[in-house]
Model the fold of this input.
Amino acid sequence: MKYKLKNFFIDGLKAQNLAKRYNTPIYCYSFKKLKENIDEFKRNFSYFKPLICFSVKANSNKILLKEMRRLGLGADVVSIGELMKALKSGIRPNKIVFSGVGKTMHELNYAITKKILLINTESKSEIFSIEKIAKSKKIKVDIGIRLNPNTDANTLSQISTGKKENKFGISEKMFLNLVNYVKKSKYLNLKCLSVHIGSQILNVKPYEKMLKVLDKIIKKTHYHFEYVDLGGGMGINYENNNKNLDLRKYSSSIKRFIKKHNSKIIFEPGRSIIGNTGVLISRIIYIKDGYKKNFIILDAAMNDLIRPALYNSKHRIIPAKKNNTKSKKTYEFVGPICESTDKFLTVKKFQKLNEKDLIIICDVGAYGMSLSSNYNLRPKAIELLIKNSKVQIINKRQNLKDLI
Done:
Protein backbone atom coordinates (compact mmCIF):
# COMPACT_ATOMS: atom_id res chain seq x y z
CA MET A 1 0.00 0.00 0.00
CA LYS A 2 1.66 3.16 -1.23
CA TYR A 3 1.38 6.31 -3.32
CA LYS A 4 2.16 6.39 -7.03
CA LEU A 5 2.05 9.74 -8.79
CA LYS A 6 0.19 11.17 -5.75
CA ASN A 7 -2.54 8.50 -5.89
CA PHE A 8 -3.01 5.86 -3.17
CA PHE A 9 -2.70 2.26 -4.38
CA ILE A 10 -3.46 -1.00 -2.61
CA ASP A 11 -1.29 -3.75 -4.07
CA GLY A 12 -1.34 -2.23 -7.55
CA LEU A 13 -4.96 -1.07 -7.56
CA LYS A 14 -5.93 2.59 -7.32
CA ALA A 15 -8.18 3.46 -4.36
CA GLN A 16 -10.18 5.90 -6.50
CA ASN A 17 -10.99 3.17 -9.02
CA LEU A 18 -12.11 0.81 -6.25
CA ALA A 19 -14.41 3.50 -4.83
CA LYS A 20 -15.85 4.21 -8.28
CA ARG A 21 -16.58 0.53 -8.89
CA TYR A 22 -17.79 -0.57 -5.44
CA ASN A 23 -18.95 2.71 -3.83
CA THR A 24 -17.95 3.68 -0.29
CA PRO A 25 -17.28 2.94 2.52
CA ILE A 26 -15.02 0.00 1.66
CA TYR A 27 -12.96 -2.26 3.88
CA CYS A 28 -9.99 -3.27 1.75
CA TYR A 29 -7.30 -5.80 2.74
CA SER A 30 -3.87 -6.52 1.28
CA PHE A 31 -2.99 -10.21 0.94
CA LYS A 32 0.64 -9.24 0.34
CA LYS A 33 0.80 -7.45 3.71
CA LEU A 34 -0.97 -10.33 5.45
CA LYS A 35 1.60 -12.82 4.15
CA GLU A 36 4.47 -10.49 5.09
CA ASN A 37 3.16 -10.21 8.65
CA ILE A 38 2.81 -13.98 9.07
CA ASP A 39 6.25 -14.64 7.55
CA GLU A 40 7.84 -12.05 9.85
CA PHE A 41 6.10 -13.50 12.90
CA LYS A 42 7.31 -17.02 12.05
CA ARG A 43 10.83 -15.77 11.33
CA ASN A 44 11.18 -13.99 14.69
CA PHE A 45 10.11 -17.08 16.60
CA SER A 46 11.62 -19.72 14.31
CA TYR A 47 13.88 -21.14 17.05
CA PHE A 48 10.98 -22.88 18.81
CA LYS A 49 8.38 -23.03 16.00
CA PRO A 50 5.27 -22.04 17.99
CA LEU A 51 1.72 -23.01 17.14
CA ILE A 52 0.26 -19.71 15.93
CA CYS A 53 -3.48 -19.56 16.65
CA PHE A 54 -4.94 -16.43 15.06
CA SER A 55 -7.31 -14.59 17.39
CA VAL A 56 -10.56 -14.82 15.44
CA LYS A 57 -12.17 -11.97 17.39
CA ALA A 58 -9.78 -9.56 15.64
CA ASN A 59 -11.24 -10.40 12.23
CA SER A 60 -13.63 -13.27 11.57
CA ASN A 61 -13.95 -13.01 7.79
CA LYS A 62 -14.08 -16.57 6.45
CA ILE A 63 -12.00 -15.87 3.33
CA LEU A 64 -9.26 -14.23 5.38
CA LEU A 65 -9.32 -17.17 7.81
CA LYS A 66 -8.94 -19.54 4.86
CA GLU A 67 -5.91 -17.60 3.63
CA MET A 68 -4.38 -17.73 7.11
CA ARG A 69 -5.05 -21.46 7.29
CA ARG A 70 -3.19 -21.92 4.00
CA LEU A 71 -0.30 -19.96 5.50
CA GLY A 72 -0.14 -22.41 8.42
CA LEU A 73 -2.14 -20.70 11.17
CA GLY A 74 -4.57 -22.21 13.63
CA ALA A 75 -7.27 -20.33 15.55
CA ASP A 76 -7.95 -18.93 19.00
CA VAL A 77 -11.72 -18.69 19.51
CA VAL A 78 -13.86 -17.26 22.31
CA SER A 79 -17.38 -18.37 21.31
CA ILE A 80 -19.16 -21.25 19.61
CA GLY A 81 -19.74 -18.96 16.62
CA GLU A 82 -16.03 -18.30 16.20
CA LEU A 83 -15.31 -22.01 16.63
CA MET A 84 -17.83 -22.91 13.92
CA LYS A 85 -16.40 -20.21 11.62
CA ALA A 86 -12.84 -21.49 12.17
CA LEU A 87 -13.87 -25.07 11.37
CA LYS A 88 -15.89 -23.89 8.35
CA SER A 89 -12.73 -22.10 7.13
CA GLY A 90 -10.90 -25.42 7.10
CA ILE A 91 -8.77 -24.90 10.20
CA ARG A 92 -8.03 -28.29 11.72
CA PRO A 93 -9.46 -28.98 15.21
CA ASN A 94 -5.99 -29.88 16.52
CA LYS A 95 -4.90 -26.29 15.81
CA ILE A 96 -7.78 -24.61 17.67
CA VAL A 97 -7.79 -23.36 21.27
CA PHE A 98 -10.97 -22.17 22.98
CA SER A 99 -10.52 -19.24 25.39
CA GLY A 100 -12.95 -17.02 27.30
CA VAL A 101 -14.39 -16.64 30.79
CA GLY A 102 -18.02 -17.57 30.13
CA LYS A 103 -18.25 -20.72 28.01
CA THR A 104 -21.69 -22.30 28.35
CA MET A 105 -22.32 -26.05 28.73
CA HIS A 106 -23.55 -26.05 25.13
CA GLU A 107 -20.33 -24.43 23.92
CA LEU A 108 -18.15 -26.75 25.97
CA ASN A 109 -20.02 -29.81 24.74
CA TYR A 110 -19.62 -28.69 21.13
CA ALA A 111 -15.87 -28.05 21.55
CA ILE A 112 -15.39 -31.45 23.18
CA THR A 113 -17.34 -33.16 20.40
CA LYS A 114 -15.15 -31.49 17.77
CA LYS A 115 -11.97 -32.70 19.56
CA ILE A 116 -10.17 -29.36 19.46
CA LEU A 117 -6.62 -29.08 20.79
CA LEU A 118 -7.39 -27.30 24.06
CA ILE A 119 -10.09 -25.68 26.12
CA ASN A 120 -8.32 -23.01 28.19
CA THR A 121 -10.33 -22.91 31.39
CA GLU A 122 -10.69 -19.77 33.50
CA SER A 123 -12.48 -20.88 36.68
CA LYS A 124 -13.05 -23.79 39.04
CA SER A 125 -16.68 -24.02 37.94
CA GLU A 126 -15.71 -24.30 34.28
CA ILE A 127 -13.33 -27.18 35.08
CA PHE A 128 -16.15 -28.95 36.96
CA SER A 129 -18.47 -28.41 33.97
CA ILE A 130 -15.97 -29.96 31.54
CA GLU A 131 -15.39 -32.87 33.91
CA LYS A 132 -19.13 -33.48 34.10
CA ILE A 133 -19.44 -33.60 30.29
CA ALA A 134 -16.36 -35.82 29.98
CA LYS A 135 -17.71 -38.23 32.60
CA SER A 136 -21.03 -38.51 30.75
CA LYS A 137 -19.17 -39.30 27.53
CA LYS A 138 -16.67 -41.57 29.32
CA ILE A 139 -13.72 -39.77 27.75
CA LYS A 140 -10.73 -37.70 28.84
CA VAL A 141 -10.66 -34.02 27.74
CA ASP A 142 -7.49 -31.99 27.18
CA ILE A 143 -7.57 -28.64 28.98
CA GLY A 144 -5.41 -25.70 29.91
CA ILE A 145 -5.74 -23.46 32.94
CA ARG A 146 -5.41 -19.72 32.49
CA LEU A 147 -3.35 -17.98 35.13
CA ASN A 148 -3.82 -14.32 35.97
CA PRO A 149 -0.17 -13.30 36.52
CA ASN A 150 -1.03 -9.87 37.96
CA THR A 151 1.16 -8.25 35.31
CA ASP A 152 0.47 -4.73 34.06
CA ALA A 153 0.77 -4.65 30.27
CA ASN A 154 1.03 -0.83 30.29
CA THR A 155 -1.76 -0.59 27.75
CA LEU A 156 -5.29 0.86 27.72
CA SER A 157 -7.33 -0.08 30.79
CA GLN A 158 -10.13 -1.32 28.49
CA ILE A 159 -7.84 -3.96 26.94
CA SER A 160 -5.78 -4.95 29.97
CA THR A 161 -6.38 -8.59 30.94
CA GLY A 162 -3.48 -9.64 33.17
CA LYS A 163 -3.96 -7.64 36.39
CA LYS A 164 -5.59 -9.10 39.48
CA GLU A 165 -8.56 -6.74 39.17
CA ASN A 166 -9.35 -8.04 35.65
CA LYS A 167 -11.94 -10.79 35.17
CA PHE A 168 -9.58 -13.09 33.28
CA GLY A 169 -7.71 -16.12 34.58
CA ILE A 170 -7.27 -17.26 38.17
CA SER A 171 -4.96 -16.35 41.04
CA GLU A 172 -1.74 -18.20 41.82
CA LYS A 173 -3.22 -19.88 44.89
CA MET A 174 -6.30 -21.12 43.01
CA PHE A 175 -4.12 -22.16 40.06
CA LEU A 176 -1.95 -24.39 42.25
CA ASN A 177 -5.03 -25.95 43.89
CA LEU A 178 -6.67 -26.68 40.53
CA VAL A 179 -3.49 -28.18 39.08
CA ASN A 180 -3.50 -30.66 41.96
CA TYR A 181 -7.20 -31.36 41.44
CA VAL A 182 -6.93 -31.95 37.69
CA LYS A 183 -3.88 -34.21 38.08
CA LYS A 184 -6.08 -36.65 40.04
CA SER A 185 -9.09 -36.47 37.69
CA LYS A 186 -10.02 -39.52 35.58
CA TYR A 187 -11.67 -37.32 32.97
CA LEU A 188 -9.34 -34.35 32.57
CA ASN A 189 -5.89 -34.15 31.01
CA LEU A 190 -3.99 -31.00 32.00
CA LYS A 191 -1.86 -30.06 29.02
CA CYS A 192 -1.41 -26.32 29.12
CA LEU A 193 -0.66 -23.31 31.26
CA SER A 194 -2.35 -20.37 29.57
CA VAL A 195 -1.80 -16.63 30.07
CA HIS A 196 -2.70 -13.38 28.29
CA ILE A 197 -1.92 -9.98 29.76
CA GLY A 198 -3.52 -7.49 27.36
CA SER A 199 -3.60 -6.03 23.90
CA GLN A 200 -1.72 -3.41 21.83
CA ILE A 201 1.51 -3.99 23.82
CA LEU A 202 4.54 -2.19 22.39
CA ASN A 203 7.09 -2.79 25.16
CA VAL A 204 8.72 -6.18 25.76
CA LYS A 205 9.15 -5.59 29.52
CA PRO A 206 5.61 -6.71 30.54
CA TYR A 207 6.19 -9.97 28.63
CA GLU A 208 9.53 -10.49 30.36
CA LYS A 209 7.89 -9.92 33.74
CA MET A 210 5.12 -12.36 32.80
CA LEU A 211 7.66 -15.08 31.91
CA LYS A 212 9.35 -14.67 35.29
CA VAL A 213 6.00 -15.16 37.02
CA LEU A 214 5.32 -18.30 34.94
CA ASP A 215 8.79 -19.67 35.71
CA LYS A 216 8.21 -19.41 39.48
CA ILE A 217 4.70 -20.89 39.35
CA ILE A 218 5.64 -23.84 37.15
CA LYS A 219 8.39 -24.72 39.61
CA LYS A 220 5.83 -24.67 42.43
CA THR A 221 3.49 -27.05 40.59
CA HIS A 222 6.16 -29.75 40.06
CA TYR A 223 4.28 -30.48 36.84
CA HIS A 224 5.37 -30.58 33.21
CA PHE A 225 3.03 -28.64 30.94
CA GLU A 226 3.18 -29.90 27.36
CA TYR A 227 2.09 -26.44 26.17
CA VAL A 228 2.52 -22.93 27.49
CA ASP A 229 0.05 -20.59 25.79
CA LEU A 230 1.50 -17.08 25.97
CA GLY A 231 -1.53 -15.40 24.41
CA GLY A 232 -1.03 -12.49 22.04
CA GLY A 233 -1.35 -8.77 22.53
CA MET A 234 1.52 -7.69 20.29
CA GLY A 235 0.81 -4.11 19.22
CA ILE A 236 1.16 -2.35 15.89
CA ASN A 237 2.36 1.13 14.95
CA TYR A 238 -0.96 3.00 14.58
CA GLU A 239 0.55 6.47 14.74
CA ASN A 240 3.47 5.86 12.36
CA ASN A 241 6.06 6.93 14.94
CA ASN A 242 8.40 3.94 14.42
CA LYS A 243 7.55 2.49 17.83
CA ASN A 244 7.27 -1.27 17.41
CA LEU A 245 7.43 -4.24 19.75
CA ASP A 246 10.87 -5.86 19.70
CA LEU A 247 9.88 -9.42 18.73
CA ARG A 248 13.50 -10.61 18.63
CA LYS A 249 14.04 -9.57 22.23
CA TYR A 250 10.79 -11.28 23.24
CA SER A 251 11.90 -14.40 21.37
CA SER A 252 15.20 -14.45 23.27
CA SER A 253 13.35 -14.33 26.60
CA ILE A 254 11.14 -17.24 25.52
CA LYS A 255 14.20 -19.27 24.46
CA ARG A 256 15.60 -18.99 27.98
CA PHE A 257 12.21 -19.97 29.40
CA ILE A 258 11.93 -23.05 27.15
CA LYS A 259 15.38 -24.30 28.12
CA LYS A 260 14.14 -24.50 31.71
CA HIS A 261 10.71 -26.00 31.10
CA ASN A 262 10.80 -27.78 27.71
CA SER A 263 7.23 -26.84 26.74
CA LYS A 264 5.76 -26.19 23.30
CA ILE A 265 4.69 -22.57 22.83
CA ILE A 266 1.30 -21.38 21.62
CA PHE A 267 0.67 -17.79 20.52
CA GLU A 268 -2.70 -16.11 19.97
CA PRO A 269 -1.88 -13.03 17.85
CA GLY A 270 -4.64 -11.04 16.19
CA ARG A 271 -3.84 -7.37 15.66
CA SER A 272 -0.16 -7.98 14.79
CA ILE A 273 -1.22 -10.34 11.98
CA ILE A 274 -4.18 -8.50 10.45
CA GLY A 275 -4.20 -4.92 11.82
CA ASN A 276 -2.11 -3.12 9.21
CA THR A 277 -3.41 -5.15 6.26
CA GLY A 278 -6.68 -3.22 6.08
CA VAL A 279 -7.80 0.29 5.17
CA LEU A 280 -11.22 1.90 5.18
CA ILE A 281 -11.93 3.98 2.06
CA SER A 282 -14.49 6.71 2.72
CA ARG A 283 -15.92 9.66 0.79
CA ILE A 284 -16.48 13.17 2.13
CA ILE A 285 -20.19 14.03 2.17
CA TYR A 286 -19.94 17.58 3.49
CA ILE A 287 -17.37 20.01 4.83
CA LYS A 288 -18.94 22.04 7.62
CA ASP A 289 -17.41 25.24 8.95
CA GLY A 290 -16.98 25.17 12.71
CA TYR A 291 -15.33 27.27 15.42
CA LYS A 292 -11.55 27.03 14.85
CA LYS A 293 -11.99 23.83 12.83
CA ASN A 294 -13.84 22.37 9.90
CA PHE A 295 -15.83 19.17 10.27
CA ILE A 296 -15.07 16.67 7.50
CA ILE A 297 -18.26 14.61 7.45
CA LEU A 298 -17.61 11.17 5.98
CA ASP A 299 -19.86 8.40 4.73
CA ALA A 300 -18.09 6.03 7.16
CA ALA A 301 -19.17 6.21 10.79
CA MET A 302 -18.65 4.70 14.23
CA ASN A 303 -20.84 1.75 13.25
CA ASP A 304 -18.17 0.93 10.64
CA LEU A 305 -15.15 1.62 12.88
CA ILE A 306 -15.91 2.01 16.58
CA ARG A 307 -12.34 1.88 17.97
CA PRO A 308 -11.91 5.69 18.17
CA ALA A 309 -15.25 6.06 20.00
CA LEU A 310 -14.76 2.99 22.21
CA TYR A 311 -11.09 3.32 23.13
CA ASN A 312 -10.23 6.87 22.07
CA SER A 313 -7.77 5.18 19.71
CA LYS A 314 -6.16 6.98 16.81
CA HIS A 315 -6.05 5.74 13.22
CA ARG A 316 -4.01 7.73 10.71
CA ILE A 317 -6.06 9.39 7.98
CA ILE A 318 -4.49 10.13 4.61
CA PRO A 319 -5.85 11.48 1.30
CA ALA A 320 -6.59 9.11 -1.57
CA LYS A 321 -5.04 11.74 -3.86
CA LYS A 322 -2.30 14.08 -2.69
CA ASN A 323 -2.22 17.74 -3.64
CA ASN A 324 0.17 20.53 -2.79
CA THR A 325 -2.25 22.75 -0.86
CA LYS A 326 -2.57 23.11 2.90
CA SER A 327 -5.72 23.85 4.86
CA LYS A 328 -5.58 26.90 7.13
CA LYS A 329 -8.05 25.34 9.55
CA THR A 330 -7.87 22.19 11.66
CA TYR A 331 -9.89 19.28 10.28
CA GLU A 332 -12.00 16.99 12.46
CA PHE A 333 -12.98 13.82 10.62
CA VAL A 334 -16.42 12.69 11.76
CA GLY A 335 -19.22 10.35 10.72
CA PRO A 336 -22.92 11.09 10.18
CA ILE A 337 -24.22 9.20 13.24
CA CYS A 338 -26.13 11.16 15.88
CA GLU A 339 -23.47 10.80 18.59
CA SER A 340 -20.75 13.26 19.56
CA THR A 341 -18.38 10.29 19.88
CA ASP A 342 -18.81 9.55 16.17
CA LYS A 343 -15.47 11.04 15.25
CA PHE A 344 -12.22 9.54 14.00
CA LEU A 345 -9.39 12.04 14.24
CA THR A 346 -8.55 15.74 14.59
CA VAL A 347 -5.68 16.85 12.33
CA LYS A 348 -3.81 20.11 11.91
CA LYS A 349 -2.01 21.05 8.68
CA PHE A 350 -3.84 18.50 6.54
CA GLN A 351 -4.00 19.10 2.81
CA LYS A 352 -6.98 21.11 1.57
CA LEU A 353 -9.98 18.87 1.00
CA ASN A 354 -13.18 19.25 -0.99
CA GLU A 355 -16.57 17.61 -0.77
CA LYS A 356 -16.70 14.22 -2.58
CA ASP A 357 -12.92 13.69 -2.07
CA LEU A 358 -11.83 10.27 -0.88
CA ILE A 359 -9.85 9.65 2.29
CA ILE A 360 -8.15 6.53 3.64
CA ILE A 361 -8.41 5.45 7.30
CA CYS A 362 -5.37 3.26 8.01
CA ASP A 363 -4.74 0.08 10.01
CA VAL A 364 -8.34 -1.07 10.39
CA GLY A 365 -7.79 -4.79 9.76
CA ALA A 366 -8.17 -5.71 13.44
CA TYR A 367 -11.33 -4.92 15.43
CA GLY A 368 -12.72 -2.93 12.51
CA MET A 369 -15.33 -5.00 10.76
CA SER A 370 -15.50 -7.48 13.65
CA LEU A 371 -16.73 -4.70 15.98
CA SER A 372 -18.98 -3.06 13.37
CA SER A 373 -22.73 -2.81 13.87
CA ASN A 374 -25.98 -1.65 12.31
CA TYR A 375 -26.40 1.29 14.67
CA ASN A 376 -28.68 3.96 13.15
CA LEU A 377 -29.81 1.13 10.85
CA ARG A 378 -26.73 1.57 8.70
CA PRO A 379 -25.77 -1.37 6.44
CA LYS A 380 -22.31 -2.84 7.02
CA ALA A 381 -19.62 -1.99 4.46
CA ILE A 382 -18.38 -4.18 1.64
CA GLU A 383 -15.08 -6.03 2.23
CA LEU A 384 -12.51 -6.56 -0.54
CA LEU A 385 -9.32 -8.61 -0.62
CA ILE A 386 -6.60 -7.55 -3.05
CA LYS A 387 -4.48 -10.53 -4.04
CA ASN A 388 -2.01 -10.47 -6.92
CA SER A 389 -3.57 -7.19 -8.13
CA LYS A 390 -6.99 -8.83 -8.39
CA VAL A 391 -10.12 -7.93 -6.40
CA GLN A 392 -12.12 -10.51 -4.50
CA ILE A 393 -15.37 -9.53 -2.76
CA ILE A 394 -15.06 -11.32 0.57
CA ASN A 395 -18.20 -9.85 2.12
CA LYS A 396 -20.99 -8.13 0.20
CA ARG A 397 -22.34 -4.77 1.28
CA GLN A 398 -25.42 -5.31 3.39
CA ASN A 399 -28.75 -4.64 1.74
CA LEU A 400 -30.87 -1.99 3.46
CA LYS A 401 -34.09 -3.84 2.53
CA ASP A 402 -32.85 -6.96 4.32
CA LEU A 403 -32.06 -4.92 7.42
CA ILE A 404 -35.49 -3.35 7.51
